[in-house]
Write a structure and sequence with these properties.
2 strands, mainly alpha, two-stranded parallel sheet, about 60% helix
Length: about 220
Amino acid sequence: MDRLLTEDVDEDEKESIAKKMIKLVNLYYWALDGHKIKVDRELRVEKYPHFMEKKGFESYHSISILGRIFDETEKAILQRSEDDKQIQITMLPFFTEVEAAPECISLWEYNYEEYLSKSRGLFDLDKEEKNEEFEKLYQSYKYLLYDAEEFEETSRDLSQVYMEACAIYRIVYERARSTKSISKCRFVWVVAGAALCHLYATKYAAQRGEKTVLCPLSVTRQLY
């Protein structure tokens, strides 16, 4: 099929490919009907287009529309990777100065490694299912942190929540810095973002002798 989509292939080759495809389709339906079939060597593919990434098989660089789309996508991914490497990932002192107990650090190092392991299996899913499964995964770790679905609903001691949130922050950001991958920071902000923002606001206000006020975002918008 790839050769049929390649502009420079002459008509004789395209006609030959079309005939082979018709034979293969017929064999396919024969097999579905339960017949024993044999695929002639001339019908077998010896090389695959590079975008199929068939490991263990010979390949050729396809210049069909599919091959060109694949190449452009690879360039975009490479460029994004290069851009990510140029981004400096730094940590906020407000979060790094919070001391965490060794058992807390060990717990969230284990949880984060577990998350990374589980998340790898989700990337092969289609977009909608992948998003749903990631949401469930994030929610499970939020519950571990808050003992509730959200920070606002937690009944845990806030100092303990803040300590764990800051431990998660350091673990995740250190990994992101070592791998130069800013996308890895997502975990901490989805899971512990609410606690970190609340802690930041509290400490920021305390430094200035001010008080913090919790206010719905909709109310804040009405002030401006």
